[in-house]
Design goal:
The protein is mostly helical. It contains 4 helices and 4 strands. Strand 1 and strand 2 form a beta hairpin.
Amino acid sequence: MNKYLQQLVELSSFDKALDDFAPRIENVQKVLRATKDELNNVTNELTKIDADVAELASQKAGTNVHISEFNTKLKEISKKSGSAKSEKEVKALNLEEEIAKEQLDAANEEIERLEKLIENKNASKGELESKKTELEGKLKSAETEISSEVEAIEKERNEVYKKRTKLVGEMNQKILTFYEKIRKWAHNTAVVPVKKQACYGCFMQINDKTFSAVVRGEDIITCPHCGRILYKSEQA
């Protein structure tokens, strides 16, 4: 294979490898982000539960105030009943007492309902706190593990970059400029193999003359259909 063509094939492989590092790092960090998102969701749920419990506690305190008021009212009615002088007055006090007792019963039922809600909220909070502790441990482990993986990938990328820099320094600048011009639109398919007499960039069949020139590998040949640089693959 022509020396310059060999350099182009090698350079293309370096560029593809360098471009592949970003998604590799992204895939590694996905796990970390997912754990962070889950932890944030749990933290938000805990904050909401605390706000709900505070609101329920406030409602309970207000209801307890009403219960105290109803009990005071019943005591006052009881005193008035002892000194009632007419049947009409007794009936009015009895009705007032009946209403106060109904209100007191309703208030006590409301207290039970609120206490049950608070109990359920606190039970959920306990479960979420356990989950949060578990996620924090998982996040810490993931950060350590991912940090090591990213460091290894970065090291590998630097090695490839050094090789690419060295190769570029040895290449003919006109050929390098020609390659970069194609790469602007073809990206990592600027240099592609020919397999089964087809360009593996546009997958179009090439004529016998072009194919023969590619097989010889003496010159830099471009695809007559798409303009990518062609080289002979092992299967050609």
